[in-house]
Amino acid sequence: MSGAPGSYYLPNPSAWPIIGSIGLFTLLLGFMLFLNEGTAGPWLMIFGAGIIALMLIGWFGTVINESEGGLYNDHVGMSFRMSMLWFIFSEIMFFAAFFGALFYARTLAVPWLADTDLLWPNYEGGWPTAGPKGPMPIDADTAVSDPATQFSTIGPWGIPVLNTLLLLSSSVTVTIAHHALKQGARGTLILWLGLTVALGIVFLYFQAIEYHHAYSELGLTLGTGVYGGTFFMLTGFHGLHVTIGAIMLAVVWLRCIRGHFKPDNHFAFEASAWYWHFVDTVWVGLFVFVYVF
Amino acid sequence: MATEEAAHHDEHHAHPTGILRWITTTNHKDIGTLYLCFSLAMFMVGGLMALVIRTELFQPGLQVVDPHFFNQMTTMHALVMIFGAVMPGFVGFANWMLPMMIGAPDMALPRLNNWSFWILPFAFTMLLSSLLTAGGGPAAGWTLYAPLSIQGGMAVDMTIFAVHMMGVSSILGAINVIVTIFNMRAPGMTLMKLPLFVWTWLITAFLLIAVMPVLAGVVTMLLTDRHFDTAFFNPAGGGDPVMFQHIFWFFGHPEVYILILPAFGIISEIIPTFSRKPLFGYTTMVLATAGIAFLSFIVWAHHMFTVGMPLAGELFFMYSTMLIAVPTGVKVFNWVSTMWRGSLTFETPMLFAIAVVFLFTIGGFSGLMLAITPADFQYHDTYFVVAHFHYVLFSGSIMAMMGGAYYWLPKWTGHMYDEKLGKAHFWSNTIFFNITFFPQHFLGLAGMPRRIPDYALQFTEFNVISSIGAFGLGLSQLLFVYVVIKCVRGGDKASDEVWEQPRGLEWTVPSPAPYHTFETPPRVA
Lengths: 293, 525
Fold this sequence. Notes:
heterodimer; A: mainly alpha; Helix Hairpins; Four Helix Bundle (Hemerythrin (Met), subunit A); 2 domains; 7 helices; 71% helix; B: mainly alpha; 3 domains; 69% helix; 0% strand
């Protein structure tokens, strides 16, 4: 089973997976009840999320202890690396579904809708649009007087371009930290990795301000037709992934402070950094296709 | 099975026993057994639902169930069979066989492997319990087309969340398969020496990782359209219900190959053994599998020919779909050529394999008919489609799994199954299958619509035949369960090789395969 040098580490039976399943089931059952006006819903959701948090801490804690205990060899490390890359590929495909919806709506569905004069005689199509029954778009970044008839969009050259610069520089800082780790420069590593996490948090802060602005002044909400739906689902899921990535990097940062990782063996750092670059790349796609064009 | 060895190997660990062993196990053989048992259980549940459908359709008119419950049965039958029986069944085979076939000690990520399985019982608890909610289970068809699915009750939400859980399970399982194949092969086991079952699973796993997230995305859009005021599929807000179909089938068509490629792999293992010849055209088999996987991404709209697409779209999807016949034909010819001038014997696995080659090809041909756009306008949403996909899914995927089960059961249990009963199961299964589904071709061509609980009088005779066949088919499976249980509990001792000089590393280890195999990797010449 375990331990013999050179052999592939096979873990002993573990209860964490079944705990994760119970947590996932409780969370989703609670969400389902919440959506259908069941009073127990929110409580079950909190309970389920708590179980999942416990599972993540326990499971990753076990893996960290095994890793620091020297149970893994390069062969195991390669399995971890490959899995992370394929996991990121699955995440890319998740975003692809929403990008696909955006492109399909913009280039096919909305123009076809504008062409069906019999059904919607006065609908002109165009982008942004909230559809023939939705509010009409006005210039970007303009406060609307009546959200029932008008909505405005968020122009690219305010907060979004700033956020682009923040995320792009955070990709640079995490790379500097990686080089420092490989050279054994712990001080530089901790500084630049901390900076990366900070940049991610500032990004999320700006994103929250932007959402507040959209809801309170621009009349742009999740319900603003197909534009609002694609806008908030894409940026919202991206924001969720930035949050996950920032938590991953923060955990790695704390581990660095504790003296974990070696210059030639630091899978968790690499995985989090890859994830961060992925989140960054998705944002560039968002900036170009959601904000600019 | 193999508990003595387990105790022997792990006496220095306190390994849980009883139910806890199965819940916490990190062993690929245990997890494979769990997957296979789960798959068999879901096969029975989904089969009972099919029998409800066939009972209602035994006679014209409405007599047994009300139409709303009928719709729930067609929806749930498909969801349970696809996500509960076929996909977990193949993962069970992968778990048992991949490490043994490539000379690995286990799957690359054993704990994740456990989680991949143990999500499934929870997902199906969620899905099946939706039948008990007010308003009943999901009734919009397994494809969950908007806007029908947007109007459904809380059962649709339960289905969406169940699909999310199944997606997590499939993606994690697929990552594990890919990493195992790339990183855990024994020295000398180069990619082009991999058994074909391993190759087909490698490509299946790639398809799973590529499209399960897309399914998760589209059902998430469904959820927000239902509860959070978005308008993805609502034209009043600039959305489009057809967009649901496009995104769904971008998942759905590769999914079809996820359901069949591992079956091709199993057939490619069985036929050479009982032909006593190496597989004909190994390299072309690998390339054909990859070709099918590539094409599967660019054919999805052939499920939507009648929805109103531009002519260019209809033509593109028609031609790309017909192209799939080329790599699939390569496979069929390779199997036939493998048998050509072989020293054939007809044990139960071989009978299943030959039946699959023959019957799957019928399903392939009806698929070609459906691919022709103008013809599809006539066939769309008729029983012809139902007949087509049961010929590829039942007499393709499910019967390949049955053949695979007979083929490897001696290796798993250490006992030979009862050959007489196995053959009886084969014949009763295969004859009743054809009685059930062959008449449905005629019904469809004559215009009987699918997913409707009643029909015009002229369709009566074929429906009666089909329903009688369905009950025979259902009863045949009880025989299958009996043969499997009998084989697990006892029987003639199986030799290590089991069959006559079969190829593959799994036949070099004892029968039953010890709890841990290949802790020291074998060297492959």
